[in-house]
Amino acid sequence: DGGITQSPKYLFRKEGQNVTLSCEQNLNHDAMYWYRQDPGQGLRLIYYSQIVNDFQKGDIAEGYSVSREKKESFPLTVTSAQKNPTAFYLCASSSGTVLTGELFFGEGSRLTVL
Amino acid sequence: AQSVTQLDSQVPVFEEAPVELRCNYSSSVSVYLFWYVQYPNQGLQLLLKYLSGSTLVESINGFEAEFNKSQTSFHLRKPSVHISDTAEYFCAVSAYRGTYKYIFGTGTRLKVLA
Predict the structure, then answer these.
(1) pLDDT higher than 70, residue B62
(2) Above 90 in pLDDT, residue B45?
(3) Among all residues of chain B, which has the CA nearest to that of A87?
(4) pLDDT value for A72
(5) Do A40 and B100 count as a contact with CB atoms less than 8 A apart?
(6) Residue B94 — pLDDT band, cuts 50, 70, 90?
(7) How far apart are the C-alpha atoms of A89 and B76, rounded to whole Å?
């Protein structure tokens, strides 16, 4: 089955620690995205990548970093600089950069900072 | 800049009753419109989309939405809801501003009551 796999599903972190969320897709999609979801705020774009070895900041990139070394993989690191990291993180992909089509989402990773 | 407004954060409705979830957008350029559904602790799934052509679009599970350009709206309707329709629904627009980007609304939580 083709799709997007995010791991871990739940993650707890102490303040001051970096954590990396994994996102893998086998849809052969060029574009990948990371969103942050908070209650009542909808989805906000953190980073996106339209092609391997290239990525762009979204609306709330501060305190996050990404890499895109392979087409299938787009990991997100939540750094200690992110002031309020507790949230639900969603990875998505699309077959092209012209967004007339569907965004395919993973099942999300819920990060809680203790 | 584009924006999407979902005025209703929560909509309770009894089973088999009709429902309308409202979505209004603003944009200075042409947009593509989408509705996504999110079940608890899962990612989003595309419900339906409007790209061009007929302004009334339908999903396979009985939802429909109508694009109204003059009112800049894309409301989602279902004539008779089921318990299984309980979920959060997100309206989104995609537009070109240097690059294509999705803008999501803040979501409407539909709760179907027995």
Answers:
(1) yes
(2) yes
(3) B41
(4) 97
(5) no
(6) confident
(7) 26
**pLDDT score of A46 more than 70:** yes
Q: Which of A104, A33, A107 is nearest to B39 (CA)?
A: A107
Contacts of A34 (CB under 8 A, 6+ apart): A23, A45, A46, A47, A48, A58, A64, A66, A74, A76, A89, A90, A91, A92
| Chain B neighbors of A43, CB-CB under 8 A | 44, 90, 104
Q: Which residue of B has its CA nearest to A106?
A: B43
Mutation to test the B interface, candidates A100, A104, A110, A111, most B Cβ within 10 Å: A100
Residue A21 has pLDDT above 90, yes or no: yes
- In A1-114, beta strands by DSSP E: 4-7, 10-13, 19-25, 31-38, 42-51, 54-57, 64-66, 76-78, 87-94, 104-105, 109-113
Residue with tokens 């537009």: B95
| B interface with A, Cβ–Cβ below 8 Å | 9, 32, 34, 36, 41-46, 49, 51, 90, 94, 99-102, 104-107
Residues B36 and B12: their CA atoms lie apart, in Å, by 18
Cα gap A57→A55, rounded to integer Å: 7
Task: Give the Cα separation of B30 and A6 in Å (integer).
Answer: 33
